[in-house]
Each structure stands twice: as C-alpha cells, then as structure tokens.
Amino acid sequence: xxxxxxxxxxxxxxxxxxxxxxxxxxxxxxxxxxxxxxxxxxxxxxxxxxxxxxxxxxxxxxxxxxxxxxxxxxxxxxxxxxxxxxxxxxxxxxxxxxxxxxxxxxxxxxxxxxxxxxxxxxxxxxxxxxxxxxxxxxxxxxxxxxxxxxxxxxxxxxxxxxxxxxxxxxxxxxxxxxxxxxxxxxxxxxxxxxxxxxxxxxxxxxxxxxxxxxxxxxxxxxxxxxxxxxxxxxxxxxxxxxxxxxxxxxxxxxxxxxxxxxxxxxxxxxxxxxxxxxxxxxxxxxxxxxxxxxxxxxxxxxxxxxxxxxxxxxxxxxxxxxxxxxxxxxxxxxxxxxxxxxxxxxxxxxxxxxxxxxxxxxxxxxxxxxxxxxxxxxxxxxxxxxxxxxxxxxxxxxxxxxxxxxxxxxxxxxxxxxxxxxxxxxxxxxxxxxxxxxxxxxxxxxxxxxxxxxxxxxxxxxxxxxxxxxxxxxxxxxxxxxxxxxxxxxxxxxxxxxxxxxxxxxxxxxxxxxxxxxxxxxxxxxxxxxxxxxxxxxxxxxxxxxxxxxxxxxxxxxxxxxxxxxxxxxxxxxxxxxxxxxxxxxxxxxxxxxxxxxxxxxxxxxxxxxxxxxxxxxxxxxxxxxxxxxxxxxxxxxxxxxxxxxxxxxxxxxxxxxxxxxxxxxxxxxxxxxxxxxxxxxxxxxxxxxxxxxxxxxxxxxxxxxxxxxxxxxxxxxxxxxxxxx
Length: 726
Hints:
The chain is α/β, with parallel strands linked by helices. It has helices at residues 2-16, 19-28, 33-42, 44-50, 52-105, 111-143, 145-149, 152-191, 204-227, 237-242, 246-279, 309-319, 336-343, 367-385, 390-401, 436-455, 476-484, 501-507, 517-521, 533-541, 549-559, 563-575, 585-601, 608-614, 619-624, 628-639, 643-665, 672-678, 687-696, 701-714, and strands at 287-288, 324-330, 354-360, 405-416, 419-430, 460-466, 493-500, 524-527, 583-584. A five-stranded parallel β-sheet has the order 3-6-7-2-8, sandwiched between helices. Helix 5 (52-105) runs antiparallel to helix 9 and helix 21 (549-559) crosses helix 22 (563-575). It starts with a helix and ends in a 12-residue tail after the last helix.
C-alpha cells in the first residue's frame, strides 16, 4: 500500500508538469494546477483501480522475484555450508592421519601428507554424493513420464530428489567426520601420543549432532519458503526451481513495474483532460491551433472509455444473470470490443469481482483448436489467480500441450562361456488425443468447479468472445455458435460475445419469423449504438483538451459517430495542423474530404466495375466534372439503372453528396447560432442527421439519399437528384 501511494504521488507531480497539461491549463483559464491535484487526490482510489490489472501483474512479479531471491540466498548459504563442512571434514581427517603417523614414527608432521589425505577424502565424499545424485537422476528419468516430456514441475522434483539425496549423504558423512576427526586431532595434540582407536573426546558426538542440525535448518527454511509463496500463482516449488532464472526474473519485474507506472500515468492524464474539459466552456471557434495531441496517439481506448447506454444496459442485464450468454451487436467500429474489454476488467472497488478473460475468434475457425486454446487460457488464468483448482489446471495444461506415452519393458538373459540366451518383452502405449466431446466435457467440469469456488467468494467467471465477425466464411459463424453454446449452461459462468450487424446479415443468423442458431444460443442481446454528438465531444475531450466544438462536429459527421472512425478522423486532422499555426474550419474540412476522396479512389479489391466507378473520385476527375455536387449525377450515368453496378453507383453517389454537404456546411460562415441549432438532434438539418446519413450509405442508400436531402434543405443547399428507379 505504501508503494502504491508513493507511486501515485510521484506520477501525479510528473503528469502535472507535462507540457500538454500546462498548455491546456493556460488555454482554459478556469482551472488551475491545485484544483487538478486536489481532484486527483479525491479520486485516487478510482484512478488506481483502473490500473489494477497492471498493479496485480507487478505484485505477482515482485512476489516471485522476492521468493526467488530468497531461494538464491538459500542456495548460496547451503553451498557455503556444504563447502565449509567438506573442508572441515577433509582437513580434520588429513591432520588426524598425519599426526598419528608422526607420533607413531616419532618425526615431524608432513604437511604434504596431511594435504594429500585431506584431498583424497574430499574427492571421495564428492564422488559418493555425485554418484548418488547421478543414479537418482537417471532412475527418476526412467520412471517419470513427465520428466521425459519436459514438464517443469516434474523436472524440478527430479532435481530436488537427486540433489536432496546427495545432500543427505553429505550431511551424514560430514557430521560424523566433523564430530570425529577434529576431536582426534585435539586428543593427540593434548596427550602427545597416537590415537589407537577411532574417536577422540566424548563431546565429539555433540559436535556431530550440531552439524546435523545445521544441515537440517536449510531444509526447514526451504519448506517454510514453499508455504509462504505469495506471488499469486499456485505453483509447486519444484516448478519454480526448474524455471529458476534470475535474469528473466529481474527483467519481468522491471517490465511489470514499467507497465504499472504507465497505466497509472495514462489514468491520471485521462482524468485531468476530462476535468479540464468539464470546467472549460465549450469553445466555439472556426480556427484551430494545437501543437500536439498525445492522447490521440493511443490507438485503443483505455482509460478514455466513455460510458454509453449500452454500458448501463450490460451492467443491469448481467447483474440479473448467473450464467448464460449475452451478445453485443452493432455496426463495425461502434465500440463493441471496447465495451467487452471494459466489462471483463476487474475493478478494485468491486469486492464481488470476477475471473474474466477475453479471447478473439480466429479468422479460420477450427472448433477443436479453439476449444483447446480457450481451455488453456482458462487454466492459465486460474493459475495466476492462485485458486484451489490451480493444481488441476496444471494437469489440464500438460494434457493439452503434451502427448503422453507409456512404455514398459522387461528383459531376461542367461549365458555360459560363448553361449548366450536372452528374451525381451516390450509394451508401448501412446495416449490418444482427446476427442472434441471429451474436451468439452473436461472444460465444462473444470469451469463448474472453478465457478463453484468463486461463488463462495461472491465472484463468478466471465468469458468474452470477441470479433465473431472475423470468422470466414461468414456462414461458419452459425457453426461456431452451435459448437460454443454447449458450454453456455455452466453454472455461475457468463459468456459475452461481440458480433457486427454485417456478420449477422451475411451469415443469415437473424432471419425474421423463426428461431435460428443465433436466437437459440444467445440469452440476451444488447445493441451498441454509434455515439451521439455530445458523447463524441466527451470522448474527444478525454484525448484532446480545448478542441473547438465546430471541429468536433466535423469529425462526428465524417465518422458517422463510430468511435473508431471518430478517433481516426481526429488523428488525421491534427496531423494537418502545423505547430504554432492556425487552420480554418473550411481548410481542415477540405483536407479531410480530399483524404476521403483519395481513400475511395484507391480502394483495392472488389469487382472491376466498382473499381472503375471509384476512379471517378480522383481529384482531377472531380474537378473536371464540376465538383462533388455534380459528381453524383455522373456516377449514376456511368452505373446505369439496374443491377449490382447501379447499386454500387448509388452508394458512391451518396458518398459524393455526403462529402459535398460536409464541405458546404463547415465553412467560415458557420455561426455560433446556426451551430447551436444544428446540435439539436431533433431538427432535420442536425449534425446527428448528417452523421446518420453517413452510416446509412451502403446499407440503406434510398434512406441515406432522403436524409441527405432533408439536411440540405434545412441548410438551403442545392437539391439532390432522386434515386434512379430500378
């Protein structure tokens, strides 16, 4: 806790000193550094809670580093103890033998003879201990299938048994030698005559007992160390010894610390941008001047997630479900993935947390491989949490990763002189890979036991399945759902899936009037809608401070309110702004529209006919035909009135009319009064209607043309031609 508080205080001062926030405070004028610091201190728990995943990862890495550091010190201490005992035994034996020989022959002690005898005993004890360790190592390798398969826990136990046997033999031999030979030396020096029988003084037995106690202490320390593991990973000590690597340990700790610091730093930045934006009045200006927007450089929203009605609906529905499945549906780019990841995140303030993970569906779906992958990830998550089923999770991981082979062999031989008779019988059994039903059964039973354990702590299992629309071909999504729904009935286990509207239509998963694969597999459906204008302003306000509202409206209309496209458009717009220079709303709109024209004209893929029509969006051809307003009619003429080419022409013509409408609205003549009226979503010429028309293009072109016409009428713009009749 002290480290957490110190880290927050340190990073708070650092973030407040960053140039971006200083410039934002200067432009705002309504909030100062003291207000921000006080507000951040008030929300300290919530900000730190947003980085709890990174904090937990660091705490695990730190606990592992601490435990392995103690292991290293223990190994060094044991090595030093063994070395000292070996040297004491060898030197005692060498001097005892040398003194006995010198006193018997009445001559001086030979140092060379003493050193030779000591070295001989030292080599003998090392060879005995090494031989025992080698034999134990080989026997363990022959008897253990897991060792031959390379399982870390089994290899660690092999090492512990082998070294332990050698250690015990050295402990006994060294204790006896330390208790006997030094006392023999002392007895011969005191009585000045050779010792006729083994042994010196009677208190040598107490010295031997003390030496044995010294050898037992590291074993007790090792046992205590295994029981006091607080790294959050329920792994046996043998596993940790097998993968012991101080360099990797230190790198992992440093990396985890850096990620934790960055997570807290990003949370502070997001919080402060939000506070500055809240305290700053909406700035109306048709000129933009901004040096840098580091908040837009993050491709994925982290702490900048803005709550939408879908968030509240998901929280409410999931709270009323113990198990089952929930689908997040909506157009691509509407924020389903972000909502899924935020929902599956564990909040520090939420004592009734959840064991959660999010997995993306592969493009080429293979039911067996995906289920094994999901099973492996669930096991990995359980081990990291240190749950009671962690040992079972380790066994499942081994069965998933390794193919087990059992071998039994017996041999008999007899011989006399040059004649030899032998017989051998061998049996080898290779375990068959698990079938798909067996995998499902094992996964369901494991999830049930894990969920039952978590339920006792008021927690549950939440599994997110993302990007269902990536499955190719699209019709395979139906098969995927039919396969996946077999595990949807696990008690206390909730599944949340995200799927786009396009994938549902292409796979025909939601036909009208009858139950289908989607309807039978999913218990609840939550619609993720595009952002409204105010929410879009709030999202951009967490990335960029002080962005004038006409520019946020421009980005909103070009993106259609899709969070992903909104950030892309804003990122592209900021790249057009030169440092310490201003750019007008009309100039920026023109640059963004030209960017969109280039994107359409250079669109790859599709049929030759669609590529030919897309070429009409080249800048020289647009100018040749009199601008975007006239380009729509040219496209209709080129596309004809029937067939797929006509439908493609209607989509491209609407795209041209939409971009033309954007250029005609976002000009120098956009006044604050007109902007305020257009910000009302209830009027026909609103920015919300223009953004909706952008979303309708390509899916409902007739409706899109009607929406565009109403917007242009409200803004007194030229009338659009009607859609060609089919």
